[in-house]
Amino acid sequence: MSVEHSPRLRAGGRAVPQRRSARGAGRPRLTRTGRAVRGLAGVLVLAAALEILARSGAVAADSLSPTSDIVVRAGELLGDGAFWSASLVPTLKAWGLGLVIAVAVAVPLGLLLGSVPYVNTATRAVVEFLRPIPSVALIPLVSLILGTGLEMKVVLIVYAAVWPVMFNTLYGLGDADPVAKDTLRSFGFGPLAVLWRVTLPAALPFIYTGVRLATSIALILAVGAEILAGFGDGLGIFIGQAMGTLDGTRDVMTGTLLAGCLGLLANSLLAFGERRLFRWHVREERS
């Protein structure tokens, strides 16, 4: 693949070649509106394909509902107060509460492990043992101990959402400028001042990214725990109960669509906040 070289300045002023793919050279960068239009076009194409497939009879009616029926049903449910109180609100409550607790635990824990090497070394074996355990595998155990209510969902969400926030906090601490930290130390600033003035600001974009990842994971655990629990309140309960009813395919797909829309909305809001709060970091990633 052909490449072209553009100069890049190193420390000291010496230019070194920077390799850049000729395929992407001169190509205009897609704007945010352009990306949104392309994404919407992809969604519409998929929706039309599912509509045609369901209407054609190629797939059994009890296996796939037309897109138009799903959209109509979603509108009906969103206008139903009983659906909000019995399905959406319990899921949103567990999702939000679990995520807040996870961030409140993971950020200080990540700062501690990243700032105190002795603590990091002492807890590494425990962390590496717990981290690979699938959160869904803990649902039966936690259900036996706490039941199938809000407490069970919150515990599972916290367990699953802690890891991306904590590890991104650790990565962010490692990205702090060592020269800036040494400069503050030379002026007599203590460890806490260095952490507050240099290390934590450098880690904030990484922590924010961890929160974005944890948001999606928390929603997966909230809905998944409700489905596997089998009874109670929540969007997952709505989906699980629809699976066991005759002609419940439309409600299953509608509940799945609503869960996906919740995740998309949350991620879009967090991405908007990231562009506003950490513009310099977003520009560095795209450059």
TrEMBL record:
Protein name (record): ABC transporter permease
UniProt keyword annotation of Transmembrane helix present: yes
Chief localization = membrane
Q: How does it sit in the membrane?
A: Multi-pass membrane protein
> Any idea which UniProt keywords this protein has?
Cell membrane, Membrane, Transmembrane, Transmembrane helix, Transport
Domain ABC transmembrane type-1 intervals: 88-270
Mitochondrion as a keyword? no
Q: Which Pfam families match?
A: BPD_transp_1
PANTHER family in the cross-refs: ABC TRANSPORTER PERMEASE PROTEIN MJ0413-RELATED, ALKANE SULFONATE ABC TRANSPORTER-RELATED, MEMBRANE SUBUNIT
Family statement: Belongs to the binding-protein-dependent transport system permease family.
The transmembrane segments are: 94-117, 154-174, 194-211, 218-240, 252-273
Output the lineage of the source organism.
Bacteria, Bacillati, Actinomycetota, Actinomycetes, Streptosporangiales
Chain segments carrying region Disordered:
1-28
InterPro entries from the UniProt entry: MetI-like, MetI-like_sf
Task: Give its localization.
Answer: Cell membrane
Q: Where is the signal peptide?
A: none
Organism of provenance = Actinomadura parmotrematis
